[in-house]
Fold each of these.
Amino acid sequence: MTPHHHAWRISGGLLLAAMLLCGRANAATPDLAAAKADVDAHSVLPNFTAPGASFDARACMKGKKILTMPVSSANPFTKNIALAEIATGKQLGFQVTEWENQARPTQWVQGMEFAINNKYDAVDLLGGVNPQVIGPQIAAARKAGIKVFTSHLYDTIQKPDASVDYSLQIPYHKVGELLADWVTLKTGGHVNAIIIGSDEIIPTAPFVKAIKDRLAEVCGKGCKWTYVNAPVPEWSTKIQSSVQSALIADPTINYVIPIYDSMSQFVIPAITITGRKDKVKIATFNGTPFVIDAIQRGNVQMDVGESLGWIARSILDGYMRDLCGLPTYSELYVPFYIFDKSNAKNAGTPADYDRGYGDKHVVGYQTLWQMK
């Protein structure tokens, strides 16, 4: 979930119920060449390109400490990024601590208070902690001289909340286009998909819009989709039942697109129970290890992966540059790489959060930070 995993817009404590919205592509004929070009470009191992000038990270971060607060420690995506940040910080000789929580705003408040009381240099609101929910605590932290950052939250086409010092954003909309291209290519322009999102997660709107817009652009008039909104606390109850009902009602559905791959654990049973495993495929995003395992078992067709170890290094690189007074950048350096049955085993069995992407980023960051 980039609740990868994500940020929640909570209004009056109310969460929207799941709702269905239908749409249809409007291009005259499918543009399979355009779809294939995008898929092919993301089917090769990513190269490492230094996002900035080299610097002595050990020297600049000596004595500093960062509190990383994932949107939920129960979410395997954000949990593993936090663990990778801790391990990377240890290699560089400074402290990164995870504030463990179960996505409750009261726990986020406590995390901010912990950072203030223990004189941290920065707080990382990782993968979904909405700054608007803890505005007073962010103000108090900044008053105490603590930098407050967000990572893997906003789409690059969104404007980060003004209350934070610095945000590292990712192009969710580009992933949406890639998912649309994949299903278009695999169906020859005959997509009938269920798209599943969580409207309270900040990047969901541009992410889902990009899927629909790209389908309209490349998929042709024969393609259609249904959108299901499943608020994060209701994933376990809403997703399986909604998908199951839709599959029973429409035997021509051929794809389910859960935009955050941790949703897949509730999609797979719905497909299995309805006996549609051979005809309904799952295409998703994040590269969470258990979903890559599901690809190896044949339960998920593809996952647009992003190395969690690469994400963690990029997050820390951006934060260190800010804390050390160096020039910064706004886009999180996260190459997207498609996993399917042809390469899922390269991530390990069981899959690991930092395997399958090659090791260019490991060596690249070591060199960038003057560790070797």
Note: Residues 76-92 form the longest helix (17 residues).
Amino acid sequence: MVKVTGGGRRTGAVAAHFAYISHQGELEIETDEGQRVSKDGQKELLKSWHLELSAGQYRPSRGDKAGPPDIKLVHNITLSMPAATSPKAVLAAARVFARENFGATHRYALALHTHQRHPHVHLVVKAEGLDGRRLHIDKAMLREWCQDFAQRMREQGIEANATPRAVRGQTRRAGKSYVLREELDVIVRELSATKTIADPARARLLKTRKDVIAGWNSIAATLEAQGEIALGGDVRYFANHLPPVLTDRERLAMKLFQITKERTLERRSTEPLRERAIDRVR
């Protein structure tokens, strides 16, 4: 997984993040130049990035009283893998990923964390490149990074897949879902009042599903044109039998309906037994 977790807008914030990813100096930070920086060297590393010049280039003209815009000086990125993945492999893949994507254009530093179940690397990338251009991260770039990091993990002998869940036919995240009690209360009240759940996110999910199905059908058409009739048919079957689109709220509502139904059936099945037991006592 590749995730952008923010970025410092002040030099002090960047210094604080360096302290965090190094566990207050207990871990060394590795730079784009291959240097290992200890706690004592973090201030010098930060100074060598000249972040104050980045902010200075965006100061308003003398007559503008709005003040300098609040821009990111760095991007904070996390590269992580599931539990039981080799931390050494994650670090090796992260090094290649960072070098290939930023080595010739942006200063960066990284640190490996293994204190949690899933090993991960914190990567700090200077927003302004060596050529003065700023790094702007969008969804397309993030998808490319996910695919790139997955490839780097495979090169380390670790199975990794960066295919989006929607394309794989999955409509929910893996693992447990922790829903706030307030959300549950809102859903219960809405179900009690209207017997239905309205979720604005449904329209967006339906559009995504439509695009996914169109993509699979396009692949099927290409296969059929190449003479792969059976394989094309399998692809169409897969696209036409994807699981129903449900938002998190709708899924939770269905689970509540199911639990209520099961409890009702259980209660009805035990009532005759209870009545017979009462009759025997009488």
Note: The chain has two domains: 2-155, 181-281.
Amino acid sequence: MKKFRTLEKQIGYRFKKKTLLESALTHPSFRYENEAASEDNQRLEFLGDAVLGLLAADVLMKHYPTDAEGELTRRKSAMTSGEALASAARILGLGEHLKMGKGEAASGGADRDSNLEDALEALLGAVWLDGGLKAAIRFFERNIVQILKQTEPALLNPKGMLQEYAQKQGFPIPDYQVIEESGPDHARRYCVEVTVSTYAFRGEGSSRREAEKKAAEKAVLNMVHP
């Protein structure tokens, strides 16, 4: 279908079964108002949600090999949150392609977070069915991981995000202190503690800057994205 070529180019995947793509972009309200419509995106969203959880866990295990289960869980929660997925969906322009009922469309449904989140998850589910695991991984890395890296400050600049959060809450500027240095000169290890109000978080790294970033990430994941 020619109408989907722009979106397929945007997401970097061309569907073999265009009906899967069409279903992923069909809001339940459209099916409710049109008897001829046999599918909406709810079933695909159910599948996509499960696929998303699996792929997010796999990516985080690879990128944060030293994180404990609790830290991985918080990262996964932030990465797969409705707000994050809706943000990625907006950048992909999914709202422009959604088929909705007249009432849903008139009330701004094309830009509603829940609709965009569901559409992105449904799209991931559709890619999984159409192209299998490898296609789903490529879609996930291109259209979710990369976009969130560019738009989510916690992934790019946790120190800046933590300072902004502290200022909004009326807290003093976060204070970073080196707690411990260890190892030979060619392989130094730093442990840094950041204090935010009455809270303290520690991070380790091969440089002070890396340790500060890790400490800030923990603070962000616990305070900003608990």
Note: The CA atoms of residues 74 and 221 lie 6 Å apart.
